[in-house]
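Researcher: Next sequence.
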Amino acid sequence: MKVACAQFRHEGDREKSVAKALDWVARAAGDGADLIVFPELAFDFFFPQVRADASYFDLGEPIPGPTTERFQAAAAKNGIVTVINVFERAAPGRYYDTSPVIDADGTLLGVSRMHHIAEEPGYNEKFYYWPGDGGWPVYETKAGRLGVAICYDRHYPEHFRALALGGAEVVVVPTATSMSEQAFRDVWEIEIQAAAVANQVFIAVTNRAGLDGELQFFGESFVAGPNGMIVAKAAADEEELLITEIDLGAIEETRRHVPFLRDLRTDLYGTR
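Model: Next structure:
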């Protein structure tokens, strides 16, 4: 199968950004991609960089809602599994950082909400987001069994382990990681490679690119295989539609020779 990481720059407003993203969906499908993944909050100004401004709650929208429905139509038209990320208004005063997962026939299979919420310079997320409450769903898609880890979730090995034990073959990571997070950039690939090999899955990380407000997003989206090796990587800083062919059969092959999940002793670890 082919995975497309849409290393995307926000165009200044939602309508322009969504219109460009819909074109990218068609481009990816035309190039043979089975799955396309967009970065975190790709279609909006990255507002968590602004501390505690309640006006940004106006950007929230329901799921299904206008943005999700447009991508459902595009997924069906182009026959491609599509994962986007939006600021979800789930109920009055209740908001999540959420990735809707859309199958290749346009069906909204469900949503994954970011569990781990950051609070640091440039990422004042605890004011805007509730912690995700939907567990670790794994979606049966036309492209394979898919799990999602949104941005800050990627720093938690337990998140990837839960998805792998749930049957995920590919974990996608929509993120908005910037030059201000040098400590994260230093381990940008290492922690994902470790998660990929520990759980013997493919992991596709899709980052934003370009300057947005005070944050410079550095791109460098990439795909890691079940042996932990980098399969493909996008350029730094600039937009790129990175399309990578992966062989899901490599998961079986890797697990036959290095059966980490078989030998996992969950009975010894407890629940804390």
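Model: The CA atoms of residues 49 and 110 lie 28 Å apart. The two ends are 38 Å apart (CA to CA).
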